[in-house]
Amino acid sequence: MASLALSHHLIPFALFLLTRTLPATAQTYTNLTQGTTLTPLGPIASWASPSGDFAFGFRPLDSNASLFLLAIWFNSTNPQTIVWFANGDHPVQAGSKLELTSDGQLSLTDQTGNEIWNPGVRSSPYAALLDTGNLILSSSSSSSPLWQSFSSPTDTLLPGQVLTPGLNLFSRFMDSNFSTGRFALAAQTDGNLVLYPVALPARNFYHAYWATDTMGSGSNSTLVFDMSGDLYHALTNGTKINITSTRTYSTEDFYRRATLDVDGVFTVYIYPKKVSGKARWGENWTAVTNIPPDICTRPTDVGSGVCGFNSFCVLENERPDCRCPLSYSFMDSAAKFKGCKPDFKTQTCELDEPDSFELETVSGVDWPNSDYEHYMQVGEQSCRSLCLSDCMCAVAVFRGGECWKKKLPLSNGMEGNDGGKLFIKVPKNNASFPRPAPTTILAMERNNRSTLILVESLLLGGSGFLNLILITAIFAMVYCYHNRVLKKLDQGTTTLGLNLRIFSYKELEEATKGFSEELGSGSFGAVYKGLLPASKSTTSIAVKKLHRLHEDSEKEFTNEVRSIGQTHHKNLVRLFGFCNEGTHRILVYEYMCNGSLTNFLFGSERPSWNKRVQVAMGIARGLAYLHDECSTQIIHCDIKPQNILLDENLIARISDFGLAKLLRTDQSRTSTGIRGTRGYVAPEWFRNTVITAKVDVYSFGVMLLEIICCRKNLEAGAGDEDTAVLTYWAYDCYNEGSLDLLVGNDEEAMADMRMLERFLTVAIWCIQEEPSLRPSMKKILNCDGSGFYFDSCGTVVVE
């Protein structure tokens, strides 16, 4: 029986309901007595709580197995998630030990014998790890713990835990680095609960980006995560301000935690417990609340903002993703939040050469806090000139007759700038790309100088007639060589095998009227509509300007584009050609007049069932071609409705296939090097495993459910938590035989119950956690490719 994976979905809630008070819960525990020692590689490295749900002891770091944390973690989840740690800033090596000494002190010492951590409690006869995940130091003479981990939190709260005034949660620096990170959640003594950016290494707080705004509500106001899973701010006067309610996910069925993540979002997660040794749905932590849900749009007064300097933040399913602007790249691709640096030598005021720079137009991005000069009642051209002539200006923004100049470093970058244009200053001479080494240039100059001296000597020493012959011969050789080079260049600027055309940047600028009509944008780049003049008519095109690419030479870029150009299938968007000129990397596709599947499915009117069936079949055929019929297998890595386009006959066409190869590894959609879009990402992206075509199968399964139900896989602001995550809800409906709930009042779909059942079965089959249990796209289609896998070919059994 196959278990199901429900991917790392995010469910935004805004539930402000009154909740119960925190109940007292009886606890059992196993004692750690005086004289007991734990060592990283010794016979006792950790011990579990009585239920086995939690464990305490030494954990090796994922990034460096020779370093260890003293930590508490969920013992039954996969991975075993850490919820508390003592030495995040000082991991220890083998030879370290934790000891409850004979005088009742709990002490962590490193391999040299230096004490790294001590909770500061003496005369404790025993330590215990409770079933709540709370580590306590206690004595028989005291009714309350002498010390407890619940009162010294790190980045996570557990049910039963309270964040009292004066306590903070600090995010980790990175997922694999447990030192103090860039964000803090503070329960302030004035009664306010606040999320702050943190200035490292000083740890002072910048301006808040989220707060309950309850200042003056009393010094005893606390953040409570009660045993029923409700998270609320309890004010001194007894008022409860709900942060979230997860009561729908019962304690019997789910583990829960609330973590201040490395990206600054305070997130409540649930994880399905195993029943009779098997998981209820699958083994994944799922986010059910994100605070704030719009972190990218919350600038700070000082500091870089959510992302680093010179980068900008894009919000995807309530999570921030940091990206670099045109001609900039990440300072550290493994830690995007460190910001971006120019890929060129910036303009200096000592050597002011405004003619050496130009302004590239960028849409949909803004850095609202980096202005240093503001002009009123100016035109666009004047705004451009004002920036080009100013050696300090790196970016200019023009909007509604106003012009803002910005200088480096840029801060608080985000999507936006509606109705405005943003111009980034870049060099004209392609400074961000490799040039011949200086030694090569010098050698060329020396060779040219030697040739010139030789010619001059011959001219001076010979007769006038010989000189004339020699001059004629030299000019003839130069002319022939020049013509040969021009002929090669001319041949290379028209076509590139299989009728792929190489466009100049000027051609595409004219075809798109200066890239004025944007069709959409994403992590790959922005897409513009254009018209190509032809002999008798014009051809509509979609022009995609790519962001920073894989570390490719021009030859590698050309080879990858040629590979994409060799694909020919009715369910793939056709590539006409490309531009590989200077800093510009542009792809030219056929234009799809009916837009994306997103607009088709989630518009004001529900499309007919037969049209949805046709679209689903087309997508399956296109993926099967990419996976099994191309000369080299292509894994898309980002299957979602936005990347499915519809032509004039509503035939589904897969777009952006092959772009994963062209993108740099640091252009991933999520912070852990994962490609794809949250909600559609297969579970194996979150593990250290080989990625196969089955990641596309998983994404197809999620999208197939959206096609069936005509709703998004994550419903923002859903009032009913049971239906907020489509994959959860669809599985429950499938189990209960309530298919009518999935399609609502769609009588056409209900009349075709046999096809509806097969579609739903295939979708659930595709989203299984284990990749090997998912079908191939070829298997999903039957032998003649005309429809989905039928009962005659086999049976799908889903628990």
From TrEMBL:
Catalyzed reactions: L-seryl-[protein] + ATP = O-phospho-L-seryl-[protein] + ADP + H(+); L-threonyl-[protein] + ATP = O-phospho-L-threonyl-[protein] + ADP + H(+)
Primary localisation category: membrane
Organism encoding this protein: Cocos nucifera
InterPro entries associated with the record: Bulb-type_lectin_dom (IPR001480), Bulb-type_lectin_dom_sf (IPR036426), G-type_lectin_kinases/EP1-like (IPR051343), Kinase-like_dom_sf (IPR011009), Prot_kinase_dom (IPR000719), Protein_kinase_ATP_BS (IPR017441), Ser-Thr/Tyr_kinase_cat_dom (IPR001245), Ser/Thr_kinase_AS (IPR008271)
GO cellular component term of the entry, any: membrane
SUPFAM superfamilies: alpha-D-mannose-specific plant lectins, Protein kinase-like (PK-like)
N-terminal signal peptide: 1-26
Official protein name in the record: Receptor-like serine/threonine-protein kinase
Major enzyme class: transferase
GO molecular function, one term: protein serine/threonine kinase activity
Amino acids binding ATP: K545
UniProtKB keywords: ATP-binding, Disulfide bond, EGF-like domain, Glycoprotein, Kinase, Lectin, Membrane, Nucleotide-binding, Receptor, Serine/threonine-protein kinase, Signal, Transferase, Transmembrane, Transmembrane helix
GO biological process, one term: response to other organism
Regions that span the bilayer: 458-481
PROSITE patterns recorded: BULB_LECTIN, PROTEIN_KINASE_ATP, PROTEIN_KINASE_DOM, PROTEIN_KINASE_ST
EC number(s) stated in the UniProt entry for this protein: 2.7.11.1
Bulb-type lectin domain span: 29-150
